[in-house]
Amino acid sequence: MKRRSFIAGSMAAIAAPGLVGRVRAQPVFGGQLPIPPLMEVGEESGNRLDAIEGTHAFIEGEQAQTLGWSQDHLGPTLRMRRGRTARLTIGNRLESEITSHWHGLHVPGWLDGGPQSLIASGRNIEQALDIDQPAGTFWYHSHPHGRTGDQVYRGLAGLLLIEDDRADTSVLPSAYGVDDIPLIIQDKAFTRRGNLQYDDGGMAAMQGFRGDRIAVNGALEPVAHVPQGLVRFRLLNASNARVYVLSFDDGRRFHQIASDAGLLPAPVSRSQLQLAPAERAEILVDFSNGAEARLVSQDVPVQMMGGMMGGGMMGGGSDLEVLKVVVGGSRPATVSELPQEFSGAYLPVFGEPVRRREFRLNMMMGMGMMRAMFGGRPTFGINGQAYDMGRIDQQLRRGETEIWEISADMMSHPFHVHGTSFQVLTQNGISVDFAETGMKDVVWIENSAEILVRFDHPATPEAPYMYHCHILEHEDSGMMGQFTVS
Question: Does the keyword Oxidoreductase apply (predicted)?
């Protein structure tokens, strides 16, 4: 029996694929889409984020215990500007340690917020982030080793936007919350009393935790009221493990205008869009005809990831409700014509690669399968080694371009690299068109991929960068490495 088939069969025999918990109380559906408050973060002091405990009503009449950044659940949208310093005070009002990882930002290792940069309970840290990268949609979340999955799932995450005065963005919708709308997409599971349910052991750790309800900005299947015209959605897959294949139920096409690290060279017409955990995309949708629509996602079974059942990611499955869109907001759309190209697109600037590195994502090292079968957390790794905070796995030099080849066995993984953005060269041996993907910081590894990467900021042994699977249960179980840049 092939190894992949054995794993798929084992998972199906031990647990229902991917889902933990079922809603027993009446869920709250169809409410107004919440818009996270916008925080302008500049050089002045007083910009503060505190990790706090809170309660949040996902379910009618029930209050779930949650975490958030300066609010009960999730955090404000931070807006920073290229060429300026963003000063922040990060406070920890929880009993457990946290970090503040700036996912996608090009900052030195000691500002990156990886597992080495722990913030103890009751402590504050001051950070000054020098922003020098193109406009884009990024995010921030806590990143302590072994607890990232639980903390992000419960709400320690938020969007981060970079604006760039060098780019002509006047051709794009830009009224935040009106025709420029953030969508933080997460899946949730609930207990009978409406509290959040989370499991990072056994098969939940093997497959990655997946809930059976979809929340957007903290609300289950909400309604967005949008103006008649072009609307910009900033999409973030902030789920621990679920991959979304997004489309509109009426079959309408839309245009992708940005990916992880910023604008594409020109809009790309699509009928559906795949987002793996931690990936972002910006899309323009035309609502000028006034017709409402539903944003839905295919419910892709876990065993299909990586082609275990021969179907790949884009096949089958019933639709999950994500968001209902109703046309007729109180303010008009600011843009009516689709732009043909973007002057501020993030174009790759790499020298010739000087070396090649290989990274193999390993499932179930040692007694990992036995631990998973009996409800424990399995051990994963990269290149045969589970993550060790005291070990530096790679040493790189600033300004040198490299090719990284990443491969996966048993199932697919979203692979994230801290401290930079990269170009995807190939996936499964097939060349990737840069115009379709743009610059990235997460790449989907179905079997193998090659990326072109360079680092322009330092990272020391005391505060290294990370590379890891962004299925958070895999990361927490050891599928992560760390590296220095000097």
Answer: yes
